[in-house]
Amino acid sequence: MGKKRLPLLLALFLLLSACGGPGDPEATPTSAPTPEAAVTSQPAPAPTPEPYDGPWNPLTGEPIGEDWVNRRPVAIMLNNLKEALPQQGQSEADILYEVLAEGGITRMLGVYQSVEGVGKIGSIRSARPYYLELALGHDAVYLHAGGSEDAYAKIRQWGVDALDGVRGPYMSNSDNGNLMWRDSERRKSYSLEHTVVTSGDAVCERFAGYTGLRQEHEDGYVYEMSFVQDGTPAGGAAAQQITVPYSNYKTGLFTYDADTGRYQVEEYGKPYVDGNTGETVAVTNVIVIKTACKNTGDKYAHITVDLSSGGAGWFACGGQYIPITWTKDFPDGQLRYFDAEGEPLTFGVGNTYVNIVPLDSAVSFT
């Protein structure tokens, strides 16, 4: 029995030597870790993050720097002609208002609680009285480049803190030489009226320094907006796509992206792009309200937009929509929105796009 095992052991020894066994100086010995070593090699559990308790951006419900939370926002007039696109910096606005101007075109008012870190913003166009009403509702400082005579009269009558790039000292022909300037890059391919821009840095650096305007809201000022993390309205109907006609010239389209929880915006049959980033503008909340829009009959075909009579509309978030009503005190009240039970609307955390359309606009949801 013992004689049979010896050759077997010898063969095993030779095989181990050939394969780098214990006698091979190049072999890497391996051994199982001791129980103590296995315990000490495990990573320590990650600490539980402290819950964020503010401050919050009053226009979006998102975190914001302490220095900005009580600041007066900046409201900037944005050109929306096809030939003036793309706009720049509009994707970083907390609220975008779109309203008709003369001839079926639209303009936008971008409202920014903070412009810190925002690049170029524009192109900037002229004022109309109803945009002043929207800016006043936010206690905002209003940036524009020119305006109708009625708008200039209302600026004086209503005491609007308006910084004008045409009749005021806030324009430069050199890049970044003032609060606003005619951008050299845009001047290469755009008409002169489509070249006025500002930037977040310009507003931060120059607004406080030489305008002499009040920087913060007065004591007791309270915003009417409130937010929840998921603003999908209860009992809503499907709003995967929202079509918002303004005129024969302009129709807006909002398509819900379930992966991001936001609406991708299109206009003129193309994505609505921010020229600073090349990315499509996306928003968390979509508001559509209807009101009377009437031609004044002047030679410029200016219109009036009724923002004080209230009316009906819709709110969409999370791919669902509900009917709403809206009110606004003339001229400086905030726009207020209510659900079918008359309760104040609650928004999803994030930015908001407000469409203000004529009474006969055939808005649709699919």
Automatic annotation (TrEMBL):
* InterPro entries recorded: DUF3048_C, DUF3048_N, YerB-like_sf
Q: Where is the composition biased (Low complexity)?
A: 25-41
- List the Pfam families: DUF3048, DUF3048_C
Domain DUF3048 intervals: 59-203, 242-354
Q: Which SUPFAM superfamilies match?
A: YerB-like (SSF159774)
Q: Which Gene3D superfamilies match?
A: YerB-like
Q: Where is this region: Disordered?
A: 23-62
Q: Which UniProt keywords apply?
A: Signal
Q: Where is the signal peptide?
A: 1-20
Please identify the protein, giving its name as recorded: DUF3048 domain-containing protein
Organism (species): Lawsonibacter hominis
Q: What is the lineage of its organism?
A: Bacteria, Bacillati, Bacillota, Clostridia, Eubacteriales
